[in-house]
Amino acid sequence: MDKFISQFTDQKLIHVEKIGREYYQMLPELSELMHKINTKIHRQAYSAGLFLGEEKSKKFKPSIALLDLIGHASPRWVMVDDKAEWLFLCGRDILGQSVIKANVNSGLVLVVNSKKEVLGYGKITGSLQNTQKMFVKNILDKGDYLRREMSKK
Hints:
The longest helix is centred in the first third of the chain and has 14 residues, at 28-41. Helix content is 28%, strand content 33%. The protein has two domains: 2-69, no CATH class; 75-151, Roll (Archaeosine Trna-guanine Transglycosylase, Chain: A, domain 4), CATH 2.30.130.10. The chain is of the alpha+beta class. It is elongated.
């Protein structure tokens, strides 16, 4: 998880606990209570606190909550227009002409709207100098959860 966060900011998260393959941020009091319960009933807690992400196939998969936490401290973002915001939340990639402002021109970036709200993250491909050839490949967006839930029905 620290390696993932370091790609966006040098900010360190505090009060992080790992439960199985999953990471949570929780107050020390909750952590202490969780450990007491685990010891008493001889079981591992299923979850506790704010879900930050999980390790899958030796890779860290962040949660939207983690992106929101690091978004305020990250200099690695692209700001998109209203149309691109909607398309990104629907799982689409972002074309260069939809980028209003960008602090970086390559690699992983947080995608934000004009209010600087984190929408998700992606990877820049192409060149910011030539917006016709640049786009941001959607990796994770806030609409992902709704799409997964709707596909179950």
